[in-house]
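input
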Amino acid sequence: MGMVAAILLLSGCDNPQKKTETAPHTTLLDGKTMGTFWRVSLVGVAPEREAALREKIQAQLDADDQLLSTWKNDSALMQFNHAATTSPWPVSEAMSDIVTLSLRIGQKTQGAMDVTVGPLVNLWGFGPNKQPVKTPSEDDIAQAKRRVGLSHLTVHQSAQGQYLQKDIPDLFVDLSTVGEGYAADHLARLMEQEGVSRYLVSVGGALVSRGTNAEGRSWRVAIQQPTDRENAVAAIVDINGHGISTAGSYRNYYELDGKRLSHVIDPATGRPIQHTLVSATVIAPTALEADGWDTGLMVLGPEKAKALALEQKLAVYLIVKEPKGFTTWMSPQFETFLLSQKN
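output
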């Protein structure tokens, strides 16, 4: 949701020509959700189960969308956003967990990852509202910024349940920065419940894997070069049971008043980012964590992102735009997942 899908699923079989008659069956399922695409690769699942699995997957993703969408006025999140109250608002355990993690990452990124940035996202035309026909004024930005800030949102957990609370009635929470990661983790849990132990699942730019592909090798995931050319690979990794997510500023943009505007908004300035970091990929224990961190790193820019990755010991891969092409940087933790790299 909201983040560019800059990760490619490589073939479940490293070399299809070498596939033997004894290799287990690979099932490929895909569809649409959250304004993006989902894809699931499964090994060893009987063909007669495919239709039922597809139905369960789509039903679960539809439910996740109904929980988190800012495009549906009747979603659980939008009901909280529309509620003109500062009293505790009951929410599901899933919603509580998502917001709690988002606030934690937001604090560690010094507010760069801010799930209350919705008013600014909408102001610049990247939310449910239409694209603006002119650049927002300083006053428009200042007014929107007054409705933004992690300090305005609190999670309460007790024996009675879970609650979100805002201290300004018109606070707007936008979880699109972590929605794909949550949905990918949720798909992985569904696979476990269905007795599937070898899979690679993706929702947009967030992926989770477990086990091996049909050839008994590691699932391979490619990080895409920041180019409009499809299948241009920057690096290939084995995420080995982890989650991975990429945030990028090079596809989701539009031109306004002669300037290219990224969908990544800096809460501190109230404006689209202007720095040279064009892609941030994070590998973490869950896709939800990876999806939260990649957004914060994209907002911070190359130097601050590198420093934070080293400080927090994150597995991070950055692509930076230079005058004559691109340069890449990876943290020591990311190197352990690397299979190969193409220049």
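quick obs: Residues 50-68 form the longest helix (19 residues).
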